[in-house]
Model the fold of this input.
Amino acid sequence: MVVVLIIGILASVAMPQYTKAVEKSRAAGVIQKVKSLQNAVDMYLLANDWPTVQFTHLSSISGRENLDISFKANSTMKRSGLAESYYMVFDDYYFYVVCERDVCYIVAEDNKPYKEQIVRASWYRYKNYTRYQPMDTWNRGTCKYKSDSSAGKAICEYFKQNSLLSNNNWEISAKS
Done:
């Protein structure tokens, strides 16, 4: 009986730490994918300049060839209400890559309906002057987390600390 009690106490202490470690690992995977997508978008802009149309879904089927993405998507997950060609799925996160006339952005959101989403993060790259400039950087990020999720807030903080962006360029907020 004492052994079972001790095991129970150890399990109750270890489980929250394990959950945090799993979420931190997933966040690290997302950051790695985003860095790869940032490089791919930069290469696309270098070769093609900025798009002249309102929206260019670089994560679409045709855009994947342009972005030269080498990691595999998880095709078993589906986002309702969105054409399958507009998103990519990696490690239980959806990724969108879109360029407009003045900004390109990458969005990562977890695999939950919008109202239940724990985390939605975006990395932005703004156009400098009238065309692509090699000195441009991914210069802004936002992260919204479910207001009652301490894990979501921790993931946003992890994105802020480990992103290529300076911490001053990150906006973290709770979503209702």
User: Anything to note?
Assistant: The mean pLDDT is 77. The chain is about 40% helix and 25% strand. The first strand starts at residue 56 and ends at 57. The radius of gyration is 19 Å.
